[in-house]
Amino acid sequence: MATRKTSTDDLLAPVTLAVGQEDLLLDRAVREVVTAARAADADTDVRDLAPEQLQPGSLAELTSPSLFAERKVLVVRNAQDLSAETIKDIKAYLDAPVEEISLVLLHAGGAKGKGLLDAARKAGAREVACPKTTKPAERLTFVRQEFRSLGRSATPEACQALVDAIGSDLRELASAVAQLTADVDGTIDEAIVGRYYTGRAEASSFTVADRAVEGRAAEALEALRWSLSTGVAPVLITSALAQGVRAIGKLSSARGGRPADLARELGMPPWKIDRVRQQMRGWTPDGVAVALRAVAEADAGVKGGGDDPEYALEKAVVTIARAARMRRG
Asked: N or C: which end of the chain has fewer CB atoms below 10 A?
């Protein structure tokens, strides 16, 4: 493989190198390879390995021939953190990859573990870029591509409105695009995005989040019930809650500065910096941690992990509102 160049379209390439720090894109790179492998062989054996699970000598065992000649996908996460001896094993493997095995290396990029990165590229590994999006224009491009990948049309104004409403989290943006395309026929325009993400002020998912992070539990619960009664999807409410809590956490850990400077640093519009500054009074690091756990539990509850999505949301709203008052309490 030392002189081979692999097409980026060859999902079953002997080695795939996913480089970057955007979790959504890294997970998609893995999923694409696994899906292709299972399409070729439904019994494909998938091993998802953290650095500590891949000790010196482990790769030889994992890539040894099988009596059943089964296809394998070996996923190595955070490859930059592998030990020097394990990196030597992988470099040796790159010279003679095993047929029917797809090795997927997830690497953050940068200086750490650069030797492995260079060796995989020199060997002709298929490479997938997974960069962290840091600019609003990049997120806008991502949203446009998401709509296109789902075979749907959205106006430029709708894409911009969605980015403005959701923020910088690609998972949440992707989830919102998927929700809109599932619920709406035809071209998605700004008015449609507005109905989902603003609507009546008292029924907005973002109003629920705003009241919760401000510690106003009763008002947050009232807004939640209005939202659900008017048909706002529970997943959009958990998304808004997540954004609200994460914004508190980001701003509380950021250096002081003008709203415009912080907006660039944190990927938020300047107006949101001013609003979050008002909301973050009373929050502590422990409170943010409690609230994030509550959001994660609610997200699982509304996506099938629980029997009562409404109860899961109510519980999260109350927990977040209490977390906002920890310092004052």
From this structure: C
